[in-house]
């Protein structure tokens, strides 16, 4: 694959199995979305998620299931949620999954809106759009990981949103990628290779207490 230490993989690594894990993880995310109804709590959503994982034959989690609702969507990965929050009729939430299938790591995240809330829907759409802009810049301009997140910040501001600077992407590979200590994508001083890095985008409204999240594997096509 590469001689770069940050992009080291294990002996079992297979790009086709990476794609398999990616597709299965997105399938799991869609299954959880189908179970997200107004009134559900984040803990109840995680219990429902476990049922989805069993149906899909997931081997294990490689990071905890993150489901954020309402004001909790502004929080970073390590910040604890307000457990009393429940999904409202016109609300926003996101799902962040790190799952292992066939010994390879999938990582997917997306944001959805219940009912009718044009501003929150605009936020969810903006996270997806920003992801596509940044991924497109990686493909066409060969930007380093550091430059990708500098570009993401500029674009987020131009779109009227705030980029969460603590969310900077990361490696994936055959499980566990953590043995390679690859660091964050946003701190990588060279162009990241395809099929190895997760681009994470988290934005928040400049004045209101909600945000959106989107992540996926950086791929050439």
TrEMBL record:
SUPFAM superfamilies for the chain: Creatinase/aminopeptidase
InterPro entries: Creatinase/aminopeptidase-like, Pept_M24, Peptidase_M24B
UniProt entry keywords in alphabetical sequence: Aminopeptidase, Hydrolase, Protease
Pfam families from the UniProt entry: Peptidase_M24
Keyword Protease set for record: yes
Domain annotation Peptidase M24: ranges: 17-220
Protein name stated in the entry: Aminopeptidase P family protein
Lineage, broadest ranks: Bacteria, Pseudomonadati, Pseudomonadota, Gammaproteobacteria, Lysobacterales
